[in-house]
């Protein structure tokens, strides 16, 4: 995937973008179409309601990045828990304060993050 740099007005910095590849052959419905814009710098600063680059809800860029298997510029925070979709113990990539992506089955989950006094969190997956 080719990478390009552009300025993000929300993060107030240069960010790297790529576009996902389309399948090389005719595919079934469960294969992503490709051609989606992906920001490789999606992270903590992307908690606004709308991404200024794509014009979509900010979390959409997080889901696209997680699904694309593109190398993120900073690693995802991980939560090891049971995925509600596949029932397996798996690392869930924490996309924001309330969303995660299962690295085993590719499903998304809603999280409930409860802060502890020492700055850590207890995380519950809500399916």
Instruction: Summarize model confidence as the mean pLDDT.
Output: 83
In this structure, how is the largest beta sheet organized? Answer: 5 strands, antiparallel
Strand content: 35-45%
Q: What is the alpha-carbon Rg in Å? A: 15 Å
Strand and helix order: EEEHEEEEE
Number of helices: 1
Distance between the termini: 32 Å
Helix content: under 10%
Number of strands: 8
Low-confidence stretches: none
Whole-number count of domains: 2
Class by helix and strand content? mainly beta
- Gross morphology is globular
Summarize the structure.
By secondary structure, this protein is mostly beta strands.
Task: Write a structural description.
The protein has one helix spanning 58-68; strands at residues 3-8, 13-19, 37-39, 78-82, 89-96, 99-102, 108-115, 121-125. The N and C termini lie far apart (32 Å). The protein is globular and about 40 Å long. The protein has 127 residues and is mainly β. 20% of the residues are buried. It has two domains: 1-75, no CATH class; 76-127. The mean pLDDT is 83.
């Amino acid at each position: 995937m080719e990478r390009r740099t552009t300025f993000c007005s929300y993060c107030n910095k240069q960010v790297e973008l790529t576009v996902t590849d389309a399948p090389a052959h005719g595919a079934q419905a469960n294969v992503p179409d490709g051609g989606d814009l992906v920001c490789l710098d999606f992270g903590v600063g992307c908690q606004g309601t709308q991404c200024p680059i794509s014009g979509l809800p900010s979390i959409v860029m997080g889901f696209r990045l997680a699904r694309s298997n593109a190398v993120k510029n900073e690693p995802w925070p991980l939560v090891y828990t049971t995925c509600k979709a596949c029932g397996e113990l798996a690392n869930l990539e924490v996309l924001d304060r309330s969303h995660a992506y299962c690295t085993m089955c590719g499903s998304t989950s809603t999280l409930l993050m409860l802060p502890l006094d020492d700055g850590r969190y207890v995380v519950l997956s809500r399916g």
